[in-house]
Each structure stands twice: as C-alpha cells, then as structure tokens.
Amino acid sequence: MPLHVSPAPAPALRSVQTALGLPRTVRGTRVPAALRTAKGPLRAELPLPTYEMARVAPNATERAARTAAPTPRTRLTGWRFLLRDGATGQEGGQGTAYLGTAEAVLTADGWAFGQFRQGPYVLSTVRAVRQAEALPASYQPRLLSVPELYMLTLWLHQDASADPAEGTPDPADLLIPLAPAPPGIAPHTAHRVDALLPVLTRRLVAAPAAAPGTAAGPLLRTPA
C-alpha cells in the first residue's frame, strides 16, 4: 500500500533548497563527487524525519522481571531528503537517479542545512521504501539510527497520521535495517519492533561506550 510520507517543515525544506541553489555549496570540495558532477539541477525528494535511538538498557523493574520489553528512547535529529539528478528523469524503481542525500537539522535558531551525503544508504533507503510500499498495511516512514551499532533502519510507524516529529517505536511498528547492517542482523528484512529491540538491547548493553567527541552512527558519519 502507499506510504504516508509526511511533508517536512517548510523551514527545513527551504534550508536544503537554499543550499542546493548556491553553486559554491553544491560544487564545494567537501561535497560528494556524485553531487558535484550532476548533469541537471538537484531536486530534494522523499523527506524522512530522522530519529536517533539512545542506549537502551533495562531499568531495575525490567531487570527484575526479565521478561519485560525494554522501552526505547528516541529523539528527532532532523529531516533527510533524497537528491535526484533532474537531468536523468525517473529512477525506474532502482534509485539510479538518486545521487545522495541532504539533511536539515534543528538548531537553537530554527531549521538549518546540515550536510550532503552519499554512500550505500542512499540506494538502500530507496530499496527499503519499495519494500514498504509492497506491504499489505500502510505506514508512516521514518529513519531510525542506532549510533552505537552504526545501524540505520527504515522505521515504519503504524499510525500514519501521527505527528512525524514525535513518538517512539510501538511494539508492532516495523524496522527494516538498511545495508550494510551489523553482523547477525538481516538487512532488508522487516522486523517487528518487539522482536528486534531485545536483540539491539543486548548488543547495546554489551557495546563499549563511544569515545567522547567521536562521530557515531549512520546519521553522523559518512558510510564507506
């Protein structure tokens, strides 16, 4: 069924469109090569709210019960847009015309352009969206990262009419890990939150804390 893609906040979209309209921004040396060499104007499409999952450790009650599901803690970090080369036409379901992503982040002064990115998560996002469109139910798509596992997922929220800037994963929501996924977690397979979250929890509890000042997570570092 069609996904209910929420419109991004107007200031967030404007910040990205403004960046795309500045030649020095798009042609800068720190911009991914695929974006610098685009033949046509870059268009921002498929806005997805991006969330980050904090370390999920069972609280005292959950540890005592042992069977209680952990409660995820998430926060909205921004909006991510896929960038299409306007000279290549439709992407034909394979995402070949999507060259990278642009991010808008929320600052103390409001929404601002974050950065451009490219890498395997671009086409992986398109593939996951196509998978979600083939599901029998309709969802609101979001992105959810687990920084300590360097993991990014397409989060399919059951409440398609929910405020995209709020909420935590419901047990029956679906998560589709994007490739590359952490070892032992199948990418491009839809997992219920209540089935995948305990797996992530065990890994997060066992994972060493990230060093201060390091960039962690697919939303904060450029994948290879």
Topology:
Elements: H1 10-20, H2 23-26, H3 33-36, E1 42-53, H4 60-65, E2 74-85, E3 98-107, E4 110-117, H5 120-133, E5 140-146, E6 151-157, E7 174-177, E8 191-192, H6 193-206
Parallel strand pairs: 1-5
Antiparallel strand pairs: 1-2, 2-3, 3-4, 5-6, 6-7, 7-8
Oligomeric category: single chain
Instruction: Give the helices and strands as they follow along the chain.
Output: HHHEHEEEHEEEEH
Rg calculated over all Cα atoms: 18 Å
Shape: globular
Arrangement of strands in the largest sheet: 4-3-2-1-5-6-7-8
β content, as a range?
A: 25-35%
**Taking all residues together, what is the mean pLDDT?**
81
Termini separation comes to 32 Å
The major sheet is characterized as: 8 strands, mixed
* Structural category: alpha+beta
The helical percent reads 10-25%
The tally of helices reads 6
Overview features:
224 residues; disordered C terminus; 8 strands; alpha+beta; globular
Description:
The protein is an alpha+beta fold and 224 residues long. The protein has one domain (10-206). The protein is 24% helix and 28% strand. It contains six helices and eight strands; from the N terminus they run αααβαβββαββββα. The chain has an eight-stranded mixed β-sheet, sandwiched between helices. A hairpin with a 4-residue loop joins strand 5 and strand 6 (151-157). 34% of the residues are buried.
